[in-house]
Structure formats: C-alpha cells, structure tokens
Amino acid sequence: MLKKHSFILFSAILFSTTTTFASKEYPYQKGVVRHRLSLAPVVCFYKNHDQHTINNKANLGFCMSYKAEIFSGKKANLILGLDFFNEAFTFQGYYAAPGKTIAFDRTYPYTHTTRIQEIELPIGIKLALMSEESYYFTPYYLGGFCPRYILGSYNLIVNDVSGVTMHEGKGDIDFEHSIISSVKQLNGFVYSGIGGQYNFRGSAKAVFFEIMYKYGLSRFNYHGYQDSNNLFIKNSNLAFSFGVRF
Questions:
Q1: Which pLDDT does position 20 carry in this prediction?
Q2: Are 65 and 36 in contact (CB under 8 A)?
Q3: For residue 157, what are the CA distances in angstroms to 42, 61, 77, 94, 162?
Q4: 10/49 Cα distance (integer angstroms)
Q5: Would 61 disulfide with which of 17, 87, 119, 145, CB 3.0-4.6 Å?
Q6: How much is the mean pLDDT over the chain?
Q7: So what's the pLDDT on residue 65?
Q8: Which residues contact 48 (CB under 8 A, 6 or more apart)?
Q9: 57 CB-near residues (< 8 Å, 6+ apart)
Q10: In this predicted structure, what is the pLDDT of residue 102?
Q11: What is the reported pLDDT for 10?
C-alpha cells in the first residue's frame, strides 16, 4: 500500500513538473491556457417603438472582463470568458400609475432612466493574422456567441411637467425572448471584432486593445414600475477594451 501511494505521489509530482516545464519552455504549445483581464468603456445603441417614446439616448456603459485563452493552434485560439456589463439609457415616454391607463396623446410627459447590470459568458475564437511566437505585434479577429443574464436594473421615472418622481428604485426588465422559457432574464449576443496585441515573446504574455461589436439576439422588455409600461427595446453595443494577458 505504501509503495502504491509513493508511486501515485511520484507520478503527481512528475506530472506537475512536466506541466510546469512545458508551460515555461513551450508557452505557445497547444493546450496551454493564458488569462486575460480587460476593462472597456462601452457605447450602446437602442431602438424603441417610435410611437411610444422619443429622445432615446444611451449613457456610457462599461465592461470588466476575465477570459481564458486556450491555445489551439499556431494562429487560432479558443476564448472562454466571464464579463460584468453595466449599461444605461434614457427616453421620454408614458407612464401608467397603478389603477390608471395610458393616454397615447404624443405628449411623452415622463422621462425614464434605466441602468442594467448583466453577467455575460463569451464563447469564441481568436484568429491571429500572424504567429504570436514570431512577431512582437499581431493583429487578430474575434467572433462568437455570448450568453447574457440580467442581474438587475434600476429605474428613475420623472414627470417632466410637475417634476415629481413617480418611481426611483429597483427596475423590472427582461427579454422579449429567452433561451430558457422559465428564465426571462437569459438570452444572448453574437459578437465580432478586431484587436491587436504586443507580445512579450518567449513568455506568451501580452498587452492588447480590442474593438468589439455585440448584437443582442432579443429585445429588452421594459415593464417600468408595476407593469406601468410594456416596451420592447432593440439593443447592441460597441466596446473598446484595454487589457493584459498573463
């Protein structure tokens, strides 16, 4: 029994040593995993129903991201990630107080401001135009699919005529269509983009910049406060990321 445990321990140490050696001596070999951290200001785009809202404006959002980059070949790598995304928009529209109905008289007397927090799980491919191992600078393409889940939202609804705040607090927003019918906060993006990175050759470490466009597969369903509204809002965004790979 002691010999068996000693053999297992020796094998584990050998495997660990071999893996460490391989990652140090051959940092670009297939199967090596590198970690990417980035921060991005995000420009958002929204389209509401033009008979129910006017003056739709997007506020600046931001995205914090961790991604695992799995080396899959000389120029193509698999990307798996976890993003926290914060976005906001404002529009003028209607509001139905509890027990009342909306008069669609084209006055749009209420200003709605909504901020949304999401968790996203990007899954994609990074395709370099040149070998990272051979060049200090390499441009690349990115693309894939990104499940997204709405963690929560915050609404501010103000009567523009009286200046009275009708609601300020937790919002109610989900998707028109969801990946799982019972989870209305779950849908996804498709995304594509370009990037460039400076490589610290010999270590597979790098610093990078990316421009990424994400297109929402489902419109938001904005409920307002206590179902005071029922608006579908088309959404997409453009992110400008700065980050490091280590």
A1: 41
A2: yes
A3: 24, 20, 45, 10, 12
A4: 67
A5: 87
A6: 90
A7: 98
A8: 56, 91, 93, 231, 232, 233, 234
A9: 89, 90, 91
A10: 85
A11: 43
Q: Contacts for 211-216 with beta carbons within 8 Å, 24 or more apart?
A: 211/238, 211/239, 211/240, 211/241, 212/40, 212/142, 212/238, 212/239, 212/241, 213/237, 213/238, 213/239, 214/146, 214/189, 214/190, 214/238, 214/239, 215/189, 215/190, 215/191, 216/148, 216/187, 216/188, 216/189
Helix (H, G, I), strand (E, B) or coil at 9: helix
Strands 110-120 and 76-93 turn out to be antiparallel
What's the pTM value of the predicted model, to 2 decimals? 0.85
Closest residue by Cα to residue 91 from 156, 169, 176, 43 = 156
Q: CB within 8 A of 198, min separation 6: which ones?
A: 136, 137, 206, 207, 208
Q: What are the phi and psi torsion angles at 80 (to 5°)?
A: -125, 135
pLDDT of residue 25: 58
Residue 106 burial by Cβ neighbours in a 10 Å radius (0-12, 13-18, 19+)? exposed
- The per-residue pLDDT for 17 is 39
Name residues of the chain where pLDDT drops below 70.
Answer: 1-25
Q: What token pair was written down for 242?
A: 């700065």
